[in-house]
Amino acid sequence: MIDTRGKTLVLYDGVCGLCHRVAKFILPRDRHDRFLFAPLQSRFARAILRRHGRDPDALDTVYVVLDHDGPDERIYGRSRAALQIARGLGGVWKLALVLGILPDFLLDFLYDRVAKVRYRLFGKHDVCTIPSPAERKKFVAMDDLEPEADPATAAAAA
User: Fold this and answer.
1) Rounded CA gap, 9 and 115, in Å?
2) Where are the domains of the chain?
3) What is the helix (H) or strand (E) element at residue 63, kind and residue range?
4) Residue 111: what pLDDT?
5) CA dihedral in degrees (133, 9, 58, 119; nearest 10)?
6) pTM, whole model, 2 decimals?
7) Where are the alpha helices (DSSP H) in the chain?
8) Does residue 38 sit in helix, strand or coil?
9) DSSP secondary structure, 3-22, as one string
10) Which residues of 64-78 are buried (b: 16+ CB within 10 A; e: fewer)?
11) Looking at residues 64-82, what average pLDDT do you find?
12) Alpha carbons 30 and 88: distance in angstroms, whole number
C-alpha cells in the first residue's frame, strides 16, 4: 500500500470517462507531488467515506481527503472538492478559488448538472481504468476494487 500521509487523496468514479480525464489532467500538473488517487469503487475509498458519514454507493461526486489518516483529516465533496484540487495545483489554477465566494448550493447545482450528463458526454468504462506503469505510483487501492459497489451493476447482476 502506498503511504498516503500528507497527501491530497482524490476519490473519483473509476469508470467515469470525465473523472478519468480529470485525473489525467492533474497528473502532469502536480509539480509538488501532492495528489494521490483512488477509485470510489475500492474498499479503501469506501472505508474513508463511511468514516466521514458519506454514502459509499453514491458515485456521482468526487471527494478530496486532506491529511488522510492524520489528526486533521477532512473530506470535501462535489464543488468544494474541485476547489481543493485547484488549490493543490497552485499557479494559474488557484484563480478558480475566486469561485469559492459563491454559496455551496449554487456551486453544487452547477456541479450536479455536469455530473448528471458525464457518462453521456464522456463515456463510461466497464471497469476502472488501469493507470500506466509510470502513473501507477500515484494510484492507491487499484487492487481492492469492489465491482458490486455500483448499485446499477449490483442490480443487473442479481
Assistant:
1) 20
2) 8-147
3) strand 63-66
4) 82
5) -50
6) 0.80
7) 17-29, 43-51, 78-89, 104-122, 151-157
8) strand
9) --TTSEEEEE-TTBHHHHHH
10) bbbebeeeeeebbbb
11) 90
12) 8
